Amino acid sequence: MSIFTTSTNSFRNQLPGETTVLVTRKHWFVLFFPMLILLFLAFMPFIIYFFISSASWYGIISSLFWFLVAAYFLILWSLAFYNIMIYLLNTVMVTDKRVIENKQEGFFRHTSNEVELDKIQDITVKVFGPFAEFLDFGDIEIQSAGAQPKFYFKQLPHPQKIKEAIMGLKIQ
Q: Which conformational region is residue 136 in: left (phi greater than 0), alpha (psi within -120 to 50 degrees), or beta?
């Protein structure tokens, strides 16, 4: 399964004759730690149950305990859904005419930034740390001649390949 996907679908504000070259999102490692924390938190009620189940007063509050556990799991499920939604909806698209960043900042708030390929002056790739080097993810900074001078795309997989794809389109 490739991180880069080719899309034949159209998207909002697509220009006439514009084709999508690649679509990518942040590296999966960005989602790993929030999901690991949520998994750890999912075991907490069972650990608490292990300690309080033998207490003499547990029979009195057992119904309340399991109701609170159910509410707790509902909150954890919502947090997992939120993290996955933010991960999946934050995308970077490279077309034959521009680079577009769709950034979901919450349930009901999103922004879309774009830079035309002919306005790109420089692209810098930054890879920080051994995990980023080993897993091949990093940041891309695009210097633009447009109204917004710099664009930052953080924690993208294979940043050097993305840079090469953009530079290859810019030369054409």
A: left
Q: Is the pTM of this model over 0.90?
A: no
Q: What is the chain written as a DSSP string? A: --SSB---S--TTPPTT--EEEEEES-THHHHHHHHHHHHHHHHHHHHHHHHTTSTTHHHHHHHHHHHHHHHHHHHHHHHHHHHHHHHH-EEEEESSEEEEEEE-SSS-EEEEEEEGGGEEEEEEE--HHHHHHHTEEEEEEEESSSS-EEEEEEEESHHHHHHHHHHHHH-
CATH 3.30.1300.10 for the 20-26+91-171 domain, yes or no: no
Beta bridge partners of 143: 122, 150
* Residue where the block lists tokens 């999103």: 110
Cα(119)–Cα(73) distance, integer angstroms: 48
pLDDT tens across 136-163, in order?
999 999 988 767 778 899 999 999 999 9
3-state class (DSSP) for residue 140: strand
Tokens of 79: 């947090």
Specify the DSSP class assigned to residue 15. Answer: P
Domain boundaries, the chain: 20-26+91-171, 32-85
Q: How many helices (H) and strands (E) does the chain have?
A: 4, 7
